[in-house]
Amino acid sequence: MKEKVKCWEFFQCNEQECPVFKSKELHCWLISGTHCRHEIQGKFLEKIEMCLECEPFKRNIDVDSIAATLKVVNAQLTAFRHMVDERDRELEGTSMELALGLSEVFQALKKIASGDPDVRIPETSQLELMTKLKHMVNLTAEDLGEIVDLSHEFAIGLAEHFDVLHRVSQGDLMARVSGTARVDLLGSLRKVTNEMIQSVSREISERKRAEGALRESEERFRQTAALSPFPISIIDSDGRYLYLNKKFTEVFGYTLEDIPTGRDWFHQAYPDPKYRQQVLSAWKGDLDKSGALEGRIREFKVVCKDGTLRDIVFRPVSMDNAKQFVTYEDLTKRKRAEEALRASEQKYRTIFELAASSIVLVDGETGAFMEFNRRAHENLGFTHEEFEKLKITDFSVTEGPEQLMRRIKKITKEGADRFETKHRTKSGEIRNVHVSSKTITIQGKDYVQSIWRDITEFKQTEAKLEDMFTQVKKGHDDHLSILNMLRLGIATVDKNGRVTFLNQTAQHLIGKSLTAIMGSHWEALLHFNVHDKARLKDLLRHPGKARTKLQAQVEFAEGRRYWMEIEVQDDPRTPDRRIFFLYDMSEVYDLRRMLEDKAQFHDLVGKSKPMQAIYQRIQEISKVDWTALIEGQTGTGKELVARAIHFSSHRKDKPFIAVNCAGLADSLLTSQLFGHRRGAFTGAVEDHKGFFEVANGGTLLLDEIGDISKNMQTSLLRVLEEKEIMRLGESRPRKIDVRVLASTHRDLSQEAAEGRFRPDLLYRIRIARIKLPLLRERREDIPLLVASFLGQSRAATGKPVKGVSREAMRILLQYDWPGNVRELKSAIDFATLHCKGSIINAENLPPEIVYPRYPRPPASDPHEAEKQRVLAALETARGNRTLAASQLGMSRATLYRRLARLDITSVK
Question: Model-level pTM greater than 0.85?
Answer without folding.
Answer: no
